[in-house]
Predict the 3D structure of the following.
Amino acid sequence: MMFGSKSVVLTAVLAALFVANSSHAAPVHLNIFDFDGTLVENRQVREGTFNPKVVLYRIEQRLNLIQTEAQGPKSITITYQDLHKISEHLGAGEGQPGAVKREVELSDGSRIRPGEYYLRLPDSYQFFREAPQGSKRNYLLETMIEAEAKGPEGQWKGPLWQLFSALTDTKEGAERIAIITARGHSRAEWTEFLDYMVKKKHIKFRPSLDRIYNVTRPEFDRYSGAGGAHGGDLVDIAARKANLVREIVYSLGRVDPGPGQLHSVLFTDDEARNFDRVAEVFRDVAFAARTPVRMILANAGLESQVRESDHYRFTSIEPSGSFKSLTNIENLFAARGVSVPTETINKMNAGPRKAQRTCDGLFTGVL
C-alpha cells in the first residue's frame, strides 16, 4: 500500500498494530527509523561504508559572455561522501556557477571543477530511487553489497542499527518497526533488500513492507503540503516526514491504550531539520489534543548536528506537552533487552554528560 498507490490510508496500514488479536485495550509502541545516516552509516567521519552514488550535471547556461564554457563531461557520477566534501563549491543551477576555478580530487583519484556542476532534482538522486523498469537492477541492494565488501566488520551499520536489529529478533518487534525515508524504491526492491538482510543474518524477521514510507514517491505528494493544508515545498523532505508522522500519531491517539496506559512513538533521524520539524509536530499534537501517546525523539546525527538542533539528543515529550531530556542511553536499549557494543553507545552519547545515571526508567516497556 505504501508503494505506488495514489492514496495512503494509514488507518488500515496501522491496524495490524492495534490489538488485532486481543479483546482488550493495550498500548502500542511504534519505532520509526530514518534509513540513511541512522540505520546505515554513510558518513566518512565515522568511516561508514554505505556510500550511495549521486549524479552531478554540468551547468550549460553561462552567467555572462565573459564566463568560459564548462569543459567537463555533461554529467558525472560521484559518491555521497564525495558530495559531502564538495557540496559548498557546487553551482546552484543553470546560470549559477560555483567556485569555477577550484579543482578537487574525488575518492577515485579523478579531478573535477565542482563549480561547473550542480544537483538537479530529482535526477541527481536517481540511485536513491526505483531503478528503470526492465533494468533488473536494485540500487538499494547494490549499495548494501558494496558496503559489506568495503566494511566486512560492519562499518556500514548506522548509530541505531543495533536497536533496529534487536527489534527484528521477534515477529512482534519487527511489526513495531516503521521506516520513513527520503528514498523512493519500489516494494519489490525493498522486499529483495530485506530478504537479503535476513539471508545474511543481519536481521531475523523482516519488518512489514506496509510500514516502509518512501516519502519522495508520488503517492506522498500530499504530505509536502504544496497547495494543500500544511503549506510547504513540493520537495521539502522535512515537511513530508513531519506531516506523515502527524497522521501516524493521530491514528494511534484514536485507539484506547487501556486504563493508565500510554502508546509511544519513537522517531529517529540524523538531519536536524527533520528532527526539529517532527519535534514541533509532537509538541503541537500534545498541546492541541492531549493524545494518549508518549513521543520520543532520538537524534542519530553527529555532535555538530545535535548542536544545530533545538533539542537534546534523546528527548521525551509527554502527552501534556512537557519536554524531558533522557540521559541514560543504556536504558534506551536495555528496556528492549538489547545488548549494544560500547562503541555504539559512545557514538550516540555525544555532548556533556548531564546526570548520566538519573534516567527514571522512562523507557521501561516503551521500545
Summary: Residues 272-289 form the longest helix (18 residues).
